Amino acid sequence: MLIKEFISETNKNQMISTLLKHYKVGSVKIKQKSMKDHAHFDVDRGTLNLSTKYKVIKSSQIKQFLITIIHEIDHAMDAKKYGWQKFKDMYEYEQNMITQGHYKGKSDVYWDHPYEIKAEKFGQKNYQKWYKIFKKQDLF
Ligand SMILES: [Zn+2]
User: Fold this and answer.
1) How far is Cα of residue 72 from the mean position of the Cα atoms in its chain?
2) Angle CA(11)–CA(54)–CA(135) in degrees, nearest 5?
3) pTM exceeds 0.85, yes or no
4) Centroid of ligand 1 to alpha carbon of 108 (angstroms)
5) Which residue from 31, 33, 37 is spatially nearest to 69, judged by alpha carbons?
6) What whole-number distance in Å separates Cα of residue 51 and Cα of residue 28?
7) How many angstroms is it from 19 CA to the middle of ligand 1?
8) Residue 131: in which H helix or E strand, if any?
9) What separation in Å is there between the alpha carbon of 41 and the centre of ligand 1?
């Protein structure tokens, strides 16, 4: 059996477009950007940035890749649900609550942020399902 160490860009893009379609965030603005992370939802602009940096990703990185994409999709779904400008306000409100010490024991504007916690949970909860689906489709 051939073990694929790297995932082609075509297969990577197919996984991304399947996920965007499934979670119905196809209408969210998408920008290809050279950056370290696989994906990042820009709350200030309502844009889902996808990395062009990893032209090919290693199979060993697939778990993190899926968690990251699904995490960012959760933000994109919220932006779609509320409208990105409203979501930006909601996101900033929570940031301010943390900064001003309104949440007991929570001080990190990222890791303690309720929308970040929600998005990370969503990624962790759903990546295995997609891992199995994409594996079956021979995408990695
Ligand atoms: Zn996030």
Assistant:
1) 2
2) 30
3) yes
4) 13
5) 37
6) 16
7) 16
8) helix 114-136
9) 7
Cα 1 to middle of ligand 1, angstroms: 37
Whether 48 contacts 39, CB under 8 Å: yes
Give the tokens for residue 39. 């994906």
Q: Say which residues have a Cβ less than 8 Å from residue 91's Cβ, sequence separation at least 6.
A: 43, 113, 115
d(C-alpha 93, C-alpha 26), whole Å: 27
Q: With beta carbons less than 8 A apart as the criterion, state whether 43 and 90 touch.
A: no
Convert the pLDDT of each residue in 54-94 to its tens digit.
Answer: 556 777 889 999 999 999 999 999 999 999 999 999 999 99
How do strand 57-58 and strand 6-7 relate by DSSP bridges? antiparallel
DSSP H or E stretch at residue 105: none
State the chain's mean pLDDT as an integer. 90
Q: Which two tokens stand for residue 68?
A: 């990251």
